[in-house]
Amino acid sequence: MELSRRDFLKLCGGGAAGAAFLGVLDFNSILEAAIIDIPLRKTWVKETTTICCYCAVGCGAIVASENGKVVNIEGDPDHPINQGTLCPKGQALYQVVNNELRLRKVLHRAPYSYDWEEVSWDWAIERIARNIKDTRDANWTEWQDGKLVNRTDAIAQLGGAPLDNEECYLLSKMARALGIVYLEHCARI
Description:
Elements: H1 5-22, H2 27-34, E1 46-51, E2 60-66, E3 69-75, H3 88-91, H4 93-97, E4 106-108, E5 117-119, H5 121-138, E6 140-144, E7 147-159, H6 165-178, E8 180-185
Parallel strand pairs: 7-8
Antiparallel strand pairs: 1-2, 2-3, 4-5, 6-7
């Protein structure tokens, strides 16, 4: 007698059902032996909900921290926007926090120099503000073709993906107040 695969599965299923009905096999003990009790989440970590910082979508994320250090970031399944999913940039949020190559100090390379030197935040902010003011004043256009324009064509601003909506809004307002007309964001390029 030739037995096909379908007939074999029917025979095995019928035999298992018959054995279970007659009480020959105790399926509860088999299932209990097969189940391994491994927790899916670490119970000793502190979980905090947050919003992904990379774009204007506002996906929810759960940040797990242990002793003040981030140990895991995953999508929030209860969040109405992403329902637990994250894009590749959102999944890489962990690397923003835990990255040995991340710069933690301000570095400055003087003109015509090959070496970077560490400088203070106060010095760097003052230097950036001074350069913006000098460039703006040297290239200011008040009138063009008999019209009041009040702008500078020498400075441009490019927004970045790590900025959230509020930061982009404030930076664009600051750029407009400085007279910058070349204002763009990387998401539109």
